[in-house]
Amino acid sequence: MADMREVHVALAAALSPIASTRTPAENFLSHAEHANPAAYLSALLAVITHQATNHGDTAAAAAAIATASVPAEVRTLACLALKNSCVRVWRGGGGGATAAGQHGGQAGNRARLRGNNGQTPTQVIQPEEKSQLRQAMLNAAITEIEASRATQLALALAKVARIDFPNNWPRLFHELAAAAGLGGGSQTTTHNGTAAAAAAAASPTATMRGYLCVHHVLSELSTKRLSADRLAYTGACALLWPAAWEHWCHDMHGIIAHVDACFAGTTQETNAALVERWRLGLKVVRRLLLRGEADPEDDSDPNTSDARRLAEVTPILQSALEALIARRAAWRARSSTHPNALSTVLAWGPKKLLQTLGDAQVQYPHSSRRSVPGVLHVCFLASTSDDCLSADGGARIASLAMSYAREVASCSAYFSSSAWESAPTAATMHESSPTRFLMGIGDTEAAAADGGGGGGGTTSWRPFDVPTATQLIRAIIARHIALQSEDATSWLENAESYHHEQMSGGAGGSAAAADAQKCRASAEYLILSIVALHRDWASSPTLGASCGKTNHVAAMLTRELEEARAMIAKDASFGADGSPTETCMRLEAACAAVSACAYDLYDHVPFGSWLCEGDASILWMLALRGVGLGARALRRRACLAVAAWVADIPDESRAAVYAALLPSLVDADLAVSLAACHALNTLINDWGFNSADLLEGARAHIGGADAGATMVQALMGIVSRCEELDSHTLGIETLASLIDRLGPEAKPYCALLASVLPQAWALSAQQNILLRDRLLVVMRHTTCALGEASPTLHAIVLPAIWESTDPARPDDFLALAVEALRLWRAVLRSAPTASDDLLLLLPRLAVLAEMSTEHARSVLSLVESYVLLAGDAAFIGDGGRAICAVFHSMVGQLNDVGTGLMMRALELSVQAAPRGAVAALSGVLSRVIKLIASGDETDTVCGYAACVLSRVAFTAPEVGGGAAGLAALASASGVTGAWPKVVAIWLGQAYAGMADAPRRRLLALGALVLIVQRDASAWSVATPLSEALKQAARESGELPTAAGVSVERSVSFELYDAGGSGDDADDEGAEVGRRAALFAQDPANAPVLSTTRQALASLGNPPELAALQV
Questions:
Q1: GO CC: one term (predicted)?
Q2: Which of 254, 364, 388, 276 lies closest to 313, judged by CA?
């Protein structure tokens, strides 16, 4: 048993960078946890708190710890070790029968998975030890001064609570409430010595730590989903809510008074404890409010306690939000003269309040409905004021405000014909809660009466009406959609990064730039939501009459675009250099807003005429050659407009669009080039793509130059000019799509691609692995385009396939194997002959098949392609051994679908290469016979297996086929009497389980071959064979069918098996011809009646086979 002195020394040594010192210490700590978890946890707590424990610590050790100065990093490591150890050892016993019954047998499995390298503790923590440890952890958490250690202790407490609450720790939340000063102290002061915790809660630090513990415990318990756990959690929230809400309201009142005092100059001190407690209190309130409800599905009932609580709370939160936002302007003007702690209140507070109100509105829209008008008013102000562009939280607040407005606009429950009849009027809304909130915060009854409780005004108030919506949209276009000075700076510094930041909505760049881009994305989504809302209103039978069945917001956006186009046409200051002007930026913003709503504006904006006609058309913007930022911005926006409106581009205008995009593809500004590349990618992948538009139509517009070659060179230039992965991926994907859609017409450009692919593949090794995946796609499409000329790419393609399918490089294999196998398949299907280089890849198939069945379908398809391409040569040497290993690894290891695919590949191997396959695969064929003879397989599996044997029956006896060869294979299977069993199953359950008419005919004619070769077992099943032959004759139309009987008509194997499947249909290449030639000579396509008559005649029409007289 380790005492706290030993644990203290080991923790200090575990921090050493020297492995010889650190490793023994780590092993000691692991052994101590395994040997006696309770003592180990007690020792960790002693190191953290400088106090002795009752688990064997000597007085000398306790004195040494108490008097020594424990380094901060050792105490921090002890907190981390405590948290991680609780996860591993707390559940492992000591919980009594109740815990065992609750967690069942999975508890031990989880403990072993998370334990010390699979070890389980030799001792379990007893219930009384757990009680002492829980109390010690709680005391340590509420008395810890340093914030990071307090957080780790709170997390450890949360892990314990997840396991012990409520069965083994029923008074958890009473103790937490006492620790946080939320009441409950009188109920717990006599239990487990909680009086000390209650006394400690009188200090500000203890109260804040108590709030921290409550927050993390609630966060952990909220993830439990069992009904009993949810019920206990809801009860705990109900216990904590009244005091938590009251205390936070009191703190909010104090915060507002403190902020006003700072602004008035009556105080220069910052009440940091009040600010921190208010911050943590808001987290707890948010958790209780949004995760403490019984069931969000019951939100439609306004009489539930949860609905009443939300109706009372949300107006107060709205008032707090208004109060803080109203004080942000003064704070920003004088922030340098005020303490930084105010930033927590005025920058962090509005964001969290908006998030809380937004989440409440999304989860409980009915209960939050009363506060929505007031919050929307705040959101409108926050998203259009000067503060919305500030870097000190204003942009983030504006983004959240627009997100809230978007969720409201998208909530169908709010906008029915009677949804807002009882909503408060605008006048009532503005006169209600803010004043009373500032006068006396916490007056929930009065606030509910004003902002969310009762009758409201006499007239309904519908948000996003036409005047409000149009004013809001114009404001956010000017504030957030239009390019700002910060955008210009970012563009000029790094055009490539700027483009991707714009396209991703703020996923990169600095924090300020990211917030600005999030604002722009939120603004676009809000505009889209409002336009869609008014579209629904205009089409509504009840609401459409009020707006004349017209989407006035969409009409406003259209007018905004037309006005901007007309203004720039008259702007003489927008000269040849393309410098940015007000009219230029207005047109750019209008194009952006209209493009964001392209789907909903399709019947308002005549894109066909905007594309080519009138002032400031799309083609006019694309033709701007000025180097100024204004011209570049318009060129880029025109490219993005083409991508957004691609479905509305008239067919007769597509050639002109391709030609207009070509100069932008090679633009010196990468932001313009990448936008043009995005537009080209969208055009190519559109369903209306026509290669003639791109090659011939565009040629006429660019003076006879080859448009295809120009685009290929431009795309390769983008890849070489850019540095970011997103740019490379976009260029390569567009190139792959271009080659794919052009098909054989891309042959003239393949040589150009082949000259750069080796260098691109080599450079991609130094970049993201996903870039190689896209290069494999380009190689595949290029291979398919070249067709029988594809061997010219083998020097590039085959090494890439080998490298990408190497299991010894697991990262590459996981990311590239799927696409590499598709490329491999395209290479084989396009190749005219089997070269030695192709056959050298065959052994890799065996490695892939033996690894797992994940790529079984692709591996079997490759085997088929090799056999069709090389014939008997595929089974010579290493190639034959590899194919044999593939089948051996799959027989009996796949489900019915996989077995069917495997048997089909095996059948094709025997059919296409009878001499090589039957000899090389004799062991596999014996296992197939054993599989059938076992009687354990389904009828479907037996049917596919019997088809393989039918192919062997058609094979000449001198190469191991025919009846004699099958009998020999049956003898080698090791099953006594295997062959008669197989023959009986062949025409019994195998024939009945085969759903395909061509393969049923194959089974019947294969059995007839055995009859001709005088196989005794086959002669014994003449009667079922007769029925099978008659059915095959009826399915092929050789025999008439009875009236009213439906018979599936048999198609030939050439039609049945020659086609591609799924994504691989375009990769067939020359393999289509090889399949057609093979199946044209298939004996299974022979007429059934004449073949049967000839067979009986060759045998002399013996009486034993009279049943076969069809």
A1: nuclear envelope
A2: 364
